[in-house]
Amino acid sequence: MTPDFITIGLGFFVGFILALTGAGGAILSIPLLVFFLHIDITQAAPIGLFALMLSTCIGALLGLKAGIVRYKAAGLMAFLGVCMAPVGVWLGHYLPRNIVGILFAFVLVYVAWRAWNSAPTELLNTEPAPCQINPATSKLFWTAPCTARLGSAGSLAGLLSGLLGVGGGFVIVPALRKVSSFDMQTIIATSLAVIALVSASGFLTYALHYSVDWKIALPFGASTLVGMLVGRQFTAKIPPRNNRRAFAVLAVTVAIGLIIKLFTT
């Protein structure tokens, strides 16, 4: 099997999983690129961010067109995320690659745990959410707790984007579910807008400091888009609980494989 065909297949698979599980599913792109194309995490990170940037931009634009993106909240989170992404890239440059790989594996396990134990939004918010919408104006009440929680989530997503080459959807979506009274469509659309901007910042930072292998990035990004569009046709046919738990098992399996690869090569 040629490397180009493997790249296209990996991109399609990641896009398909992305459509079924949400933006957090793109975290699988980095270890899969490492496993099958035999590149290290610092080489795979900008490729994964490039594909994520393309796919989330489409989702964010559709959300903006539908009027369901909370653009001020997204702007605050994205601004802090963009500021922190270069810090993550800088840390990744100085940390040993095995340490970065272990951190990535731990993040995969955390994402798997969240996916397996994910509860409906109404069960998560047992107390009044810090971020409430004014029913008279349909705008967000900008309280100090709301601003702080959104800002910290955006900062963490940006740091992880730069350090590990992930978009931070596994940070943004749970944070919005926990601290806001937004419906799930608004949460997803807002998170996609944040991730699009943060992943773009992470990708540009990598591109300025490292060489991007466009022979891999372009076909991988294009096939990810195709996989996402195909996967969207199946989202309503597979129960969300089954999606999340299958993804959790896959993420743990990939994390174990990544640890084994780190200590055997």
Features:
two-stranded antiparallel ribbon; 2 strands; globular
Provide a descriptive summary of the structure in words.
The mean pLDDT is 84. It contains eleven helices and two strands. The longest helix has 26 residues. A two-stranded antiparallel sheet has the order 1-2. The chain has 265 residues and is mostly helical. Strand 1 and strand 2 form a beta hairpin. The chain is 77% helix and 2% strand. Helix 1 packs antiparallel against helix 2, helix 2 crosses helix 11 and helix 3 runs antiparallel to helix 9.
Pairing-aware structural class of the strands and helices? mainly alpha
Give the strand tally.
2
Distance from N terminus to C terminus (CA atoms, Å) equals 23 Å
In DSSP terms (H or I, runs of 4 or more residues), the helix count works out at 11
Major β-sheet profile: 2 strands, antiparallel
Stretches where pLDDT is under 50 for at least 5 consecutive residues are none
Task: Please list the strands of the largest sheet in the order they lie side by side.
Answer: 1-2
Task: Specify the helix fraction band.
Answer: over 70%
How would the global form be characterised?
globular
CA gyration radius, whole angstroms: 18 Å
* Strand fraction: under 5%
